[in-house]
Write a structure and sequence with these properties.
This is Citrate synthase. It catalyses: oxaloacetate + acetyl-CoA + H2O = citrate + CoA + H(+). One of its GO terms (molecular function) is 2-methylcitrate synthase activity. It holds the Pfam family Citrate_synt. It contains 17 helices and three strands. Strands 1-2-3 form a three-stranded antiparallel sheet. By secondary structure, the protein is mostly helical. Helix 4 runs antiparallel to helix 5 and helix 12 crosses helix 16. The longest helix is centred in the middle third of the chain and has 26 residues. It folds into two domains: about 230 residues, Citrate Synthase, domain 1 (Orthogonal Bundle); about 100 residues, Cytochrome P450-Terp, domain 2 (Cytochrome p450-Terp, domain 2, Orthogonal Bundle), CATH 1.10.230. A hairpin with a 2-residue loop joins strand 2 and strand 3. Bound molecules: carboxymethyl coenzyme *A. The site of carboxymethyl coenzyme *A (CMC) has 18 residues, from loops.
């Protein structure tokens, strides 16, 4: 085992095959089950994208109606989940809150709890668990934000589809079509991205024949970090620090001198720009018009121009989605939980794929600790 064989961060390693999505950095494209993500974001409700990720095909009208009916059955906040959230301090990070809530849902679903040997579930059970999580997450995220603001819970409304109902449960007001559209697009764009850190984590957990909920809880832990999902929250902190487009140059001088990473820029796979950015930037522009907040666009563009010209590193999806969620009225701390609500569809599609053609994921390591040595005074006693 030499250093040359080690791919630090598994960079460039192809770990398995997947039919869920394809990232092509050369053509700057991302396909979900063959469909370009921009086309899905422009034409499909998020429910149809979830169906596609799970089942491999877009739903027909009846299939979409059936998924929507199942989503409605599970979209109210489960009583035990609310009770668990209420026990947490208000200062708990929302990612920890959502991780805990998912864990409570898992522990409350007793199918397969008799023995670890049953826990990994049948394909039907796993699809049911996936739908249950996808349906419950909006209520969890919305309740979290309302609780922190000292507001009452808002019950779901049957007349509203997924995106509009999510906004309704968060803000207690019927959302404008422009906002629903931007939110729906963001959910589609965040849904899936091949073997990113959280998805790979979910697959590692699944590969031990553990259960779907455990895999999702672990994935949430991986998503929390600022090098992954936490970046959309971090983008807003940066924008707040800069304040105004005219401060971009001095702020960036200082940040780069301090060797800070500029959140919302750069990507392990895309080196020439993130395929999801133009679609989300268009949604952000629509929100800027809707809310009459041109200064948000000015700051966005000034920082992008300056950073790209200095470093040649392009924005990733978190760069436009951060300010978009801020304009919609989400608290900054709620941004990464929104990413969970979307990515749970991709995670669970990968979990089911991993389960269907499983091999335990267990790589090797090259040892670089002390050479073999012995405990002083130890005498072997045959
Ligand atoms: N700001 C400043 N410098 C950067 C940035 C950045 N955002 N991204 C990369 N670089 C520099 C980095 O310092 C390094 O420079 P040098 O060669 O002089 O040491 C060079 O570019 C290569 O970067 P790297 O960190 O080795 O590349 P990576 O492939 O490991 O990093 C990344 C990918 C996403 C971790 C990194 O670009 C980053 O930290 N970005 C900021 C956090 C962020 O926006 N994350 C969201 C990722 S996309 C959404 C998701 O999938 O969750």
């Amino acid at each position: 085992e030499t250093d040359a064989e080690i791919k630090k961060g598994l960079a460039g390693v192809v770990a398995d095959v997947t039919a869920v999505s394809k990232v092509n950095p050369e053509t700057n494209s991302l396909l979900y089950r063959g469909y370009p993500v921009q086309e899905l974001a422009a034409t499909q409700p998020f429910e149809a994208v979830a169906y596609l990720l799970w089942n491999g095909e877009l739903p027909d009208e009846r299939q979409l109606a059936e998924l929507r009916a199942r989503e409605r059955r599970h979209r109210a906040l489960p009583r035990e989940v609310r009770a668990a959230i209420d026990l947490l301090p208000l200062e708990a990070h929302p990612m920890d809150e959502v991780r805990t809530a998912v864990s409570v849902i898992g522990a409350s679903d007793t199918a397969g709890s008799a023995s670890v040997l049953d826990a990994s579930g049948t394909p039907e059970q796993n699809l049911e668990r996936s739908i249950r999580l996808y349906a419950a997450l909006p209520a969890i995220v919305a309740y979290g934000q309302r609780r922190r603001r000292g507001e009452e819970i808002v019950e779901p409304r049957d007349a509203l589809d997924y995106a509009a109902n999510f906004l309704w449960m968060t803000f207690g007001a019927e959302p404008h079509d422009t906002v629903v559209d931007a939110f729906n697009r963001s959910m589609t764009l965040y849904a899936e991205h091949s073997f990113n850190a959280s998805t790979f984590t979910a697959r590692v957990v699944t590969s031990t024949l553990s259960d779907l909920y455990s895999a999702v809880v672990a994935a949430i832990g991986a998503l929390k970090g600022p090098l992954h999902g936490g970046a959309n929250e971090a983008v807003l902190h940066i924008m707040d620090e800069i304040g105004d487009a005219s401060n971009v140059v001095p702020w960036l001088d200082r940040a780069l001198a301090e060797k800070r990473k500029i959140m919302g820029f750069g990507h392990r796979v895309y080196k020439k720009g993130d395929s999801r950015v133009p679609t989300m930037k268009a949604a952000l522009d629509a929100l800027i018009d809707h809310y009459g907040r041109p200064e948000v666009g000015e700051l966005y563009e000034a920082l992008e121009r300056e950073f790209v010209s200095r470093k040649g590193i392009y924005p990733n999806l978190d760069y436009p989605s951060g300010p978009a969620y801020d304009l919609m009225g989400f608290d900054t701390l709620t941004f990464t939980p929104l990413f969970i609500a979307s990515r749970v569809t991709g995670w669970t599609a990968h979990i089911m794929e991993q389960a269907a053609s499983n091999a335990l994921i267990r790589p090797l390591s090259a040892y670089n600790g002390p050479a073999e040595r012995h405990v002083e005074g130890y005498e072997p006693t045959d």
